[in-house]
Amino acid sequence: MNEKLRIFSGAQPSGTITLGNYLGAIKSWVDLQNDYECLYAVMDMHSITVRQNPAELRKRTLDLLKMYIACGIDPEKNIIFVQSHVPSHAQLGWVLDCYTYMGELSRMTQFKDKSKSHADNINAGLFTYPVLMAADILLYGADLVPVGKDQMQHIEICRDIATRFNGIYGDVFKIPDGFMPKAGAKVMSLQEPSKKMSKSDPNPKGYISMLDEPNVIAKKIKSAVTDSEGVVEYREGDETKAGINNLMTIYSAMTGSSMDSITSEFSGHGYGDFKSAVAEAVVEHIRPIREEYDRLSSDKAYLEQIYKAGAEKAEAIAWKTVRTVYKKIGFLAR
Ligand code: AQP
């Protein structure tokens, strides 16, 4: 029998997910769910590396789970769960902390960025975030981890930690590969296109939330920062075109069109026409997701049933890994 390869991924309930989270990660999860055995978690433990309001965190956790399903992740086919419901994440995280060096963690771009944006709360969890993420992935022997570009550095360190551990104790962990989509691996802020779009951006004009109303989406795209050249052309690495490059990336991810064909489509048109087309494509793509999300809102019992069953299935896989690891490193069995 040909066993399916396994996927693990997740997103943090640190806000309503953005078009960036969707295009960079969640859309790939949906696309890959038929060909892999997939586990998708709501990463609540990661989210507390930044201070969260407890009541809001609880609500957002359920909202994110709902959003996964609304985006098209089938709870019948995939294991969907909440990270903190599976204690093995914390257990393996601690062990791996002891096999990770301060030097390699201090090179992580996300740590540097978040230390700047949360200068009043540079906690140890923020620093060791990539180790917990390595545990998330390695617990399930994931072959593939679909993420946005910003998380690729964390996949690299996960591979390094796993390789180091295997070098000492034998082949305990499978070495995972990252997976990025062709279009949308890094969606940029609409207001500061040199910065990635983030759900916790204090300026809501910078991001499109998956729950924004159509008129809000259109307004945000119309006020997106561009340049004065007026030519819809993708120029990789050209900072002056960062805004247009970003809108073209979004349009390409929505329509499947190549950059060249987008340029031909809008040749002789101004940015106004192009922005209207981008807005329409985004609104139409998000519409059914939004409708499904609203439909699920009233069905709390259904969601509870999904996350409870998901946690049980996830824990059954994860605990086996923890048990193997504990034995390898010399912890006395209970
Ligand atoms: N702008 C982006 N473009 C493409 N992919 C992105 N991802 C995040 N931002 C973009 C991908 O979304 C997945 C879930 O991300 P996360 O919730 O784990 O945390 P994050 O990467 O820190 O995302 P945010 O939106 O920036 O959250 P906050 O504001 O809380 O830090 C990941 O696969 C990520 O690559």
Record keyword descriptors for this entry:
53% helix, single chain, 334 residues, mainly alpha, globular, Rossmann fold, two-stranded parallel sheet, binds adenosine-5'-tetraphosphate, Tyrosyl-Transfer RNA Synthetase, three-stranded parallel β-sheet
Tell me what you see in this structure.
- The chain has helices at 19-32, 44-47, 54-71, 88-97, 102-105, 109-117, 124-138, 152-169, 214-222, 242-255, 259-265, 271-296, 300-329; strands at 6-11, 37-42, 79-82, 144-146, 177-179.
- It is built from 13 helices and five strands.
- It folds into two domains: 6-185 and 299-329, Rossmann fold, CATH 3.40.50.620; 204-294, Orthogonal Bundle (Tyrosyl-Transfer RNA Synthetase).
- Helix 8 (152-169) links the parallel strand 4 and strand 5.
- The two termini are 35 Å apart.
- The chain is mainly alpha-helical and 334 residues long.
- A three-stranded parallel β-sheet has the order 1-2-3.
- Bound molecules: adenosine-5'-tetraphosphate.
- Adenosine-5'-tetraphosphate binds next to helix 1.
Q: How many strands, what sense, and barrel or not for the largest sheet?
A: 3 strands, parallel
Rg computed from alpha carbons, rounded to a whole number of angstroms? 21 Å
The chain-level mean pLDDT equals 96
CATH superfamily of the largest domain: HUPs
Give me the oligomer status.
single chain
- CATH architecture descriptor of the largest domain: 3-Layer(aba) Sandwich
The count of helical stretches stands at 13
- The poorly predicted ranges are none
Enumerate the distinct ligands: adenosine-5'-tetraphosphate
How large is the share of residues in beta strands? 5-15%
Shape: globular
**First CA to last CA: what distance?**
35 Å
